[in-house]
Amino acid sequence: MTTVAKVALVTGATDGIGRATALRLARYGFALHVLGRDAARGERVLADLNHIAPGRPHALYLVDMSDLDAVEQFLRQYTDGNDTLDLLVLNANAWVRDISVAPAEVDVVFALRLLAKCTGLIEPEESGRRIVRHVLETRAEDVGGKYYALEKEKRLPAKLTGSRDAFDRLAAYSERVTGVALGELKVL
To answer: Which distant-in-sequence residues (6+ apart) come within 8 Å of 72 by Cβ?
Structure first.
């Protein structure tokens, strides 16, 4: 009898927290569908996944998540080509990597990372470890439609959701495109 690996789709998985999460999930038996926008980084992640968990049907999907037409096209192709999805980690984010010097002659990215370390924010590998531990230790029905920060349930700040009307429109769009309802999210 052949065991089929659980399938996880991780957005933003070509770098940072998404990459760390994808690599850790592979160690726990998942086949990874990596979603990102940089082909070279994506190929490196696939090589790492195939080294960690050879023989699993890992796949790379290149999509610019800021292009809603591209996202809709990806979703159609993905659902047509895949029968199952066991875990979805929505992690896509943009991080500016170009050097940008502040008036004090300090690289802004360096300053932000130093500030993050000094204020207790954690590195991508630690974030990935925490995300995967949370995934493995909880049941979907207990955490679906909820927002977590450092393993604690939080209310979504209004600055992340915009107005309640804008958030409701985004949630309705998401449900229409994916067929999955977000449920009632708490918004401050």
So the answer is: 177
